[in-house]
Amino acid sequence: xxxxxxxxxxxxxxxxxxxxxxxxxxxxxxxxxxxxxxxxxxxxxxxxxxxxxxxxxxxxxxxxxxxxxxxxxxxxxxxxxxxxxxxxxxxxxxxxxxxxxxxxxxxxxxxxxxxxxxxxxxxxxxxxxxxxxxxxxxxxxxxxxxxxxxxxxxxxxxxxxxxxxxxxxxxxxxxxxxxxxxxxxxx
Length: 187
Fold this sequence. Notes:
38% of the residues lie in helices and 16% in strands. It is α/β, with parallel strands linked by helices. Strands 5-4-3-6 form a 4-stranded parallel sheet, with helices on one face. The protein has a two-stranded antiparallel ribbon with strand order 1-2.
């Protein structure tokens, strides 16, 4: 920008500094846009670090293979989930929990009295590495999840609601803490 004086139409002398506010505003908008873009990139980078690693989230093969049922019950846990009138959300959660390491089995406490559970729909979606057992209930009670299920084969049991999504990494960490505490208690 030059500060060379020049003559205006009415004979007064003026500098290019008259145009300075417009250019400064342009620079301010440019700086503001740059700051916004940088902040968005930083937030995106921070959120990306929260995603699970591809290596940790990958299934054993491209087509998910069924887990061996002979796995030690101390090396795995059972997830119990109670549900009522949320079939679409339930199916999404069941699909999500299929990728959780050390998950032995999922027991779904089906509280929709008089309605058939989505077991046929779930089984039609393909092979699943973690077996899912649907337990229809005669009454709709919150304490239905506290029953003793004959399908329980593990020492560790996690009860979750049908509106809770817990990451696979968090579940694996929680189970590893339980294993350490369980081993300390056995000693």
